[in-house]
Amino acid sequence: MTFQTPAPAVTAAYVSVRGAGKTYMSPRGPVPALLGIDLDIRPGEFVSVVGPSGCGKSTLLKCVAGLEEVSTGEIRVGGRPLDGPPDKLGVVFQRDVLLDWRTVLDNVLLSIEFLGLPRAQYRDRALTLLNRFGLAGFEHRFPWELSGGMRQRASICRALLADPELLLMDEPFGALDAMTRDDLNIELARIWQDTRKTLLFITHSIAEAVFLSDRVVMMGKAPGKILDIIDIDLPRPRSLAIRESAGFAAYTQRIRHHFAELGIVKE
């Protein structure tokens, strides 16, 4: 049985991006990557960003993560201007970035070590997360013994271990096969449904964005700017079967048609 999740109450944004621009310098001159980005993400909201390669999606995520400074404008997280990575942040990149000389469990616990927290206090939580993501029995294996999907599962466990308030994911399933990607989409949706973390998700897949999100942000060609923001009014929790519904198809067609009108994709 499904139910309709109530719309989030109007409240102050947890992530607020105002007039954000990013320009890189090269020997041939300035290279603009982002231009005039305005975006609010409410607490507990799942927001996806879709757009063509090179449009600045990953740059936007890195700026929200405090890994890159904006050239113009301002980003606030939790009401505070960014001057580096914000507190209670988890990040998952397209590559899992696991350390091959550490076991899966030790890789997951690495995030705790970076924060200077006691490993023993988080060991049980790490094992619980590994079990939830289908990695029970692999905690003492090494990353090179795992498939790509299993490695990415471990990477997600590592990001979730310290219970972050803000989770940033940069095309985390882009390199996986379709079946593994579907499986991780379902598990991520369940995790978000249970925890309601504020989540910014970067993807090339329109269908993935619609399936996972409360809102989908459409970005155009570089320099990256927001073309439109689409509210996704589909019931939660969502199963893969919802992708066969007329409502789901309407959202994906609307987004694809908008990109086609701008010459970004072909129909």
From TrEMBL:
SMART domains, alphabetized: AAA
Domain of life: Bacteria
GO MF terms held by the record: ATP binding; ATP hydrolysis activity
ABC transporter domain residues: 15-246
Gene3D superfamilies: P-loop containing nucleotide triphosphate hydrolases
Key word Kinase present: no
InterPro entries per the UniProt record, alphabetical: AAA+_ATPase, ABC_transporter-like_ATP-bd, ABC_transporter-like_CS, ABC_transporter_ATP-bind, P-loop_NTPase
Keywords: ATP-binding, Nucleotide-binding, Transport
Organism from which the protein derives: Phreatobacter stygius
Designated name of the protein: ABC transporter ATP-binding protein
A Pfam family per the record: ABC_tran
